[in-house]
Specification:
By secondary structure, the protein is an alpha+beta fold. Helices cover 26% and strands 33% of the residues. It has 3 domains: 68 residues, Ribosomal Protein S8, Chain: A, domain 1, CATH 3.30.1370; 74 residues, 2-Layer Sandwich (Alpha-Beta Plaits), CATH 3.30.70; 86 residues, Structural Genomics Hypothetical 15.5 Kd Protein In mrcA-pckA Intergenic Region, Chain A. The strands form 3 sheets. It has a 6-stranded antiparallel beta sheet with strand order 9-14-13-12-10-11. Helix 6 crosses helix 7. It is globular. The two termini are 30 Å apart.
Length: 249
């Protein structure tokens, strides 16, 4: 566990206990979310919520406080910035890495930036509200492509995160078998990811290769992707489980 991160959470919860006003963290990655989940039983009592800007976001802010306790509501200070080529005709095929690199070149720490969702030529960035105007003004190029940024008043219509339904046959519904089949790995390579601390279930590190996922849980595998566990659709004639997942694509 990250002792420095746990101390930060302890200080934040103590501040809320003393001040009784809404407090927010920066965006938390999977490692920080795992630390939070593990140290929650040792932290002072406080109402808390996690949110990344939209349902399905992996990087999330922690908010301490509630309307019931604070007497008012305060939304998460998260903005959504659309980053799109100025001319689609001359645009390169840009990736998540390309957009992130351009943003980091502006001098931002990663914790100020949430998820980046790439859709065809454009991308949508969740970031701290206070830096959105600077990004809108300053981010004009990603690789060799000229881009224009706009701060959205509302999320774009339709599903921001795209899920692809897949069904895999498993002899037994185990997390390692699921990771191996969905990401086309050998069983040994999949099991190594658990030992390396690269597999998370709903923001909690999972070292148990034999863990049985629950319906609706999100399995994140660093370097490979994410999936939502749906459940067993049916049994094959040989008794294997036809197991359904939705993979974030």
């Amino acid at each position: 566990m990250d002792d420095t991160q746990e101390k930060r959470f302890q200080e934040l919860f103590r501040r809320y206990d003393t001040q009784g006003v809404y407090l927010f963290t920066h965006f938390l990655d999977l490692a920080a979310l795992n630390t939070l989940n593990r140290c929650l039983p040792r932290l002072p009592r406080a109402p808390w919520t996690l949110f990344g800007g939209a349902e399905g976001c992996e990087r999330k802010m922690l908010r301490l406080g509630s309307e019931e306790e604070c007497g008012y509501d305060q939304p998460f200070p998260i903005a959504c910035v659309r980053m799109a080529p100025a001319s689609a005709k001359f645009a390169e095929k840009l990736t998540h890495r390309d957009f992130l690199g351009a943003l980091m070149n502006l001098g931002f720490e990663r914790e100020l930036l949430g998820d980046i969702v790439v859709r065809e030529e454009e991308a949508f960035l969740f970031c701290e509200e206070r830096i959105a105007p600077y990004i809108q003004q300053s981010l004009t190029q990603v690789r060799r492509t000229t881009v224009r940024c706009s701060i959205l008043d509302a999320l774009p219509q339709g599903d921001l995160f795209r899920l692809e339904r897949r069904v895999v046959q498993l002899a037994s519904v185990r997390a390692d078998a699921l990771v191996a089949h969905v990401f086309k790995l050998s069983r040994a390579d999949a099991q190594a990811l658990f030992a390396q601390g690269r597999v998370f279930v709903d923001g909690r590190a999972c070292a148990d290769t034999g863990y049985t996922p629950k319906e609706g849980e999100i399995l994140s595998v660093r370097g490979f992707g994410r999936m939502k566990y749906i459940g067993v659709d049916s049994l094959s004639k040989k008794g294997k489980s036809n197991t359904a997942v939705e993979v974030f694509v």
